[in-house]
Every structure is written in structure tokens, then in C-alpha cells.
Amino acid sequence: MAETVTPTSEPAAKEWYPKTLDLTALRQNEATKANPYGPDFDYAKEFASLDLDAVKADIRKVLTTPQPWWPADYGHYGPFFIRMAWHSAGTYRTGDGRGGSDGGELRFEPLNSWPDNVNLDKARRLVWPIKQKYGRKLSWGDLMVLTGNVAMEDMGFKTLGFAGGRVDAWQPDLVFWGPETKLLDDKRRDGKGNLKGPLGATQMGLIYVNPEGPNGVPDPLAAAADIRRAFGAMAMTDEETAALIAGGHTFGKAHGAHKPEECVGNDPGQGKIEQQGLGWANKCGKGNAEDTVTSGLEGAWSANPIAFTTQYLDNLYGFEWVKTKSPAGATQWIPKDPAAANLVPDAHRPDVRHAPIMFTTDIAMREDPGFRKITQGWQKNQQAFSDAFARAWFKLTHRDMGPQARYLGKDAPKVTMTWQDPLPKANYAMVDAADIAALKGSILSSGLTTAELVRTAWASASTFRATDMRGGANGARVRLAPQKDWAVNDPAELAKVTAKLEAIRLGFNKAAKGGKQVSLADLIVLGGNAAIEQAAKAAGHDVSVPFTPGRVDATQAQTDVESFNYLQPKADAFRNYYAADSFYGPTEALVDKADMLGLTVPETTVLLGGMRALGANAAGSKAGVFTDRPGTLNNDFFVNLLSMDTVWTKAAAPGLYEGKDRASGALKWTATPVDLVFGSNSELRAVAEVYASDDAKDKFVADFVAAWTKVMNADRF
Predict the structure, then answer these.
(1) Label partner for 177 (CA 20 to 30 A): which of 254, 352, 615, 662?
(2) CA 165 to CA 182: how far, in whole Å?
(3) Catalytic residue of the set 87, 249, 258, 354
């Protein structure tokens, strides 16, 4: 038989040239054509037409309707669906806002085939009839979370509510899940055992931690440390972490009836075409029901796994626990008391009973002093336990959705929590065009420079992360802790600029009539816009930078300092800023920052070139300012970068390059890697050539204004 050759049989360009900067993440931001519903699809509008009560009724029917190809444990699919919702949401990490339920990414590789997600492919097939029925009105991301909520409610738990608004992706998100090349490896820690960079899970292919203990070592206290690392990296406090573990393990069971290596086939990503996306085929026994193999651990935590009770906590503290092995060979714990051997009914066989079990991570709740204090308190106060679990579950399943303004549906709770980055409501009339013109005049006559105004506006708006819809200019949190003290924001300059803008705000608001007021958040953006208009005019271009008022000013009490510190940029190529402790190299950090802002390759290119021309580098650095007229909005960055009159060499200072005149050897410019990459990378150079062309001056200004406005408005939901 002839060898089969496919279009992907040859090594990709990335494999041939591994040092090439990968721009794929930014290409995804251009991929509106990937959506089969079309570029104008409005999911919020479709969701608004959904009868949510009817959807929940349909889910409740599925919960107890048996399917012979995948029977339900205890006759109820609820625990299975809770796991699906949990693992859909649980990839969220606060370090960079990536992961979570938005996008329905659990459908795609690698998450679809992770070892922690074994058999969740079947959970999605069980609810496919509901997705099929409601189609475009109900995304997979929303359906998976809603199904988990309805499952809990059907088993007697009162959730805090459900908010829709998760828009489905059509391809896997490009996320750095870790440096490992082998699943379940752990090469992601520093010398102190802490997770590096934005990573959340403790091993490749896990959602949180290894339930048997770190790397399979059954040490409860070491497991507690890993639990804190992983759940903390996903924005959970100790109380929220304990609530999720204790509440989640109130339901369902673990599955490890046989040794996986003897029974279980490939994951979905490695499956044969005739398997139609279903993986982990089990050849032992029935292949499901009492023969199911998932984690390799086997058993239930309570005697009633399809009801919300305190049995998990009662059992945890009511027995002395000893290590044992599951049928699959995994380490787990059972009561030392032989009288407990028949407390738990079998999930499928009415004549079989078992002892309750605990994972090493469950025993950690008892052995760790901090977790013990929390969980023992709940054992005595079920209402407090229920309330804590409801809040933690809501946070888990909604953390990546951003502020409440993005929540859809009648079931969204009205309660506001600090982790939602709350904002006050504007109770005043907005400024009109005449007011805006007057305010711009006041700003431009205040003595503040173009660079200062642009830097401040960028510092305020560029904290936005499209990954979890946090940050941005709304709220003017740039004037509050912690942002006011970040080195990248030049605290002294920031304080000077915001003080002058605040004086303008107070003066305007005192004199304004008709109930009109302006916020500092709006003035910060307006100041940047006015500076850009002035800089464009100095370069011979009359432009009007779009501005829509309506931003409000958050208070310090509405701002969680620890949570917002995760938004601190360790690198911002647009300001030519790079800290030594950045997780990514300078050019990789450029792509990461641009991706989190939702920028395309052309937008990234024109923004960086324009920021250099405006002299908007952090701390006034001259690196990359390839112009003899800084402060004007011109395309000199691209013209001079691509000029063959300049020869570039490494400077003595690390991370810097010198551009010298090819003929005379005289020093002309200095640059960083994020400047020179627009000339060295073939894809970026192709775009830079567009903006360096003689006929591109108007296009450059127009494109810069459009990209700038996109960033300024990114958080206007």
C-alpha cells in the first residue's frame, strides 16, 4: 500500500524555524469568518429569546432518563454533569485570565482529551439533544454550566443563580498549559515548589491537583499545599477552596473499577475516525456502569451521593482513615472501622455495598490546620456550609465572564461581590459635544505633554484582558492601589497627570448645568484622545478620535488589591517596558499582551509604531523612537526601521540594540527586541512595509486611531 501523504505530513514552518515568533494567537483575533453563524451573530440577542425555564425542565428530564450506552450512577446523571461543569470552568487561572467556561473550550483538544477529563465526552453527548433543540440560542459554554446548576438543584441544593453570556469558540484557544511534553508530568515549579508564571494546575493534564497527592505521593499536608497553590492561582480563597472540595464531593463517586492500562483505549484526540470523537473505550466487563474507569480511584464519599447533605463532612471527621488501593491500583482512604464497610450502596448493583472513601486531597481538609478549622465549623453549621458552597460554585463557574454588566438572563443573581470588580452607577447626565470640546481645550492647556496624556490613558485602558474581561479604563482604577504604584505606570508622573485631570473634573462639575457631570475615567481617556488629535495635526492630519462618555469612577473599597495585582504587566511592548521577572521573553510577551487586548496583527503593528512616534515609552525611554519629531503622529518608526541606511548591532547594555549609519558609523537609534522584531519577523515586516510606504501616511493615522479607540473602549460592555 502506498504511503498516505496529507497536507500536514511535512514539518510545519515552526518546526523548521523554531525561533520564529508565533503570531497565531493574533491571527485568531482576525478569525470572524470561523463562526458558522456569521460575523454579525449576536449571541446576547439570541439568548434573550430563550425560555430558560423550558431549558431547565428539559435538563431535568435528561438527569433521570437512562441511556443504555452510558448508564447513570444511582439512576441520576447529576454528579456526572456537575463534573462536566466544574471541569469546563476549572481551567480558569487568574494569572492571565485564560481558561474557564467561556468559549466552551472543553469540546476541543487538548482539554477534550486531558486525563482529568476522562469520559466527559459522554456527558456532552448526553446533553447534545438539548443543544440540538435550542441551537444558536444556547451556547455550549452556557449549557455545560447551566446543566451543572440544574443537577445540583435537582439533588436538593440551592445555587446562587446562573448567568448566561458565554459565547462559543470554534477552535481551541491558544493557551500555554505548561512546559511538559508528556501528560501528567510536572516540570512547572520553581525551587520553592511554586507554580511558574500564570499556570494553575499542578501537573499537565489536570484541572487542579492530583487527588492521590502531589505526583501520586499520598501526603495530606503536601496535598494541602498543592491545593492552595492550584486553587489560589484560580482566584480561590481557603474558604472557597474548602467549600468547593467538600461541596463537590458531597455528590457522586469516583470510578476505578479496573486497571486503566488493561482496559481503557485512546483518548478522543487519538481515537479512530469511526469512534466519532468518543474516547476511552473500555473493553473490561460492561465497559460502563460498575465497570467504569475514569480517575482510577473508586467509590463514593457518602451513603447518598445524589443528595446534598453533610455526610461528606460527617464521614471525614467521624472515622479514622487508612490508606488502601482501588481496584485500579490508585491510593485512596477508607475508614479503619470495619463497621463502615457496608455504608455506601453500589451505584448500579442493588445487592452490593461498600465503605465510603476519601482522596488524599480530602484527608488534607482534615489534616491541614487552616482547612480543618473551616470544615469543622461547617460540620456544625450546615447553612454556613451551603452558603459558602453556593458562593464558591457561582464564582467558579462565572469568574471568567467579567463584570455583572455581561451577565444575561433572569436567573443572574443581583448580589454584587468584590471579585466581580463592581462599579458605581452613573446618576448624572452625560457631557455633550460642546462640553467635550471644552474639556479637551482645558486638558491641552493644562501643561501636560502629549506623551504624558497618552501614557496615562494607555496605563488606564491597557489593563483590559479579553481573556476574562477584567481591567480597562472604566472605573479609573489606575489612580487607586495597586495600579497607582506599579513601576510600569511611573507613579510620580501618573500622580501628576491624574491630579491635573481631577482638578479639571472638579472645576467642570462645579460649573456644569443640567445635572451634567464628567468622571475622571472619562477624562483620562479624553486626555489621550485630545493628545493624539493634536499630535496628528502636528503631522498634517486632521482627525477626530471617537469618544463616548459614560465611564464611572470606582472606589478603593470596590477594588481588591490582591486580585488587581494579577493585572500588573511584567512586560508592555507598547510602552517598551520589560521587567526582568517577566515569564515570557520580550517578543513572546508582545504577542501575549496584544492577544489579551484582542488585537490583530495589523492593529498590534500600527499601535506600537504610533506609540513610539508619540514618545509614549515608559519612563520616557528613547528606545524605538525612530523619529526626529517625537510627539507627532507619523509613520517614521516604520520608515526608519526598514531603511537600509541603518545597521543594527547588540549594545553593551542587555536587551538593547544600536542602530548606526551604514556609511558613517554614527549612532542613530537604540531599540529593544520588540522594536526590531517588526523588521526581522517576516509576517510583521510585511505589515510594517504597508505603513512605511509613501502612500500610507493617511492610512497609518486612521488605522492607529481605530486601534487606539478599540483599546480605550474594550471594557465598555
Answers:
(1) 254
(2) 34
(3) 87
Contact 117, 87 (CB under 8 A): yes
Integer Cα distance of 328 and 212 in angstroms:
13
Query: 283 near 265, Cβ under 8 Å?
Result: yes
Q: What is the pLDDT of residues 491-522, one digit of tens each?
A: 999 999 999 999 999 999 999 999 999 999 99
The amino acid at residue 426 is: A
Rg from Cα positions in the chain: 28
Question: What is 573-699's CATH number?
Answer: 1.10.420.10
Whether 87 is catalytic: yes
DSSP letter at 166 equals: P
Backbone angles phi, psi at 667, to 5 degrees: -70, 125
Domain span(s) for CATH 1.10.520.10 in the chain: 433-570
In tens, the pLDDT along 600-632 reads: 999 999 999 999 999 999 999 999 999 999 999
Amino acid, single-letter form, for residue 208: Y
**Cell triple for 275:** 469512534
Q: Name the pTM for this structure.
A: 0.95
**Residues belonging to the chain:** 717
CATH number, domain 433-570:
1.10.520.10
Q: What residue ranges of the chain are covered by domains with CATH 1.10.420.10?
A: 214-390, 573-699
Number of Cβ within 10 Å of residue 511's Cβ equals: 8
CATH 2.60.120.280 for the 214-390 domain, yes or no: no
CA distances 646 to 80, 311, 552, 662, 672, Å, are 63, 74, 47, 5, 15
Beta bridge partners of 408: 164
Q: What is the distance between the alpha carbons of residues 236 and 395, in angstroms, rounded to a whole number?
A: 9
Count CA within 13 A, CB hemisphere, residue 707.
Answer: 23
Main-chain phi, psi angles of 359, to 5 degrees: -85, 165
Burial class (CB in 10 A: 0-12, 13-18, 19+), 671: buried
Which of 703, 683, 674, 596 is CA-nearest to residue 29? 596
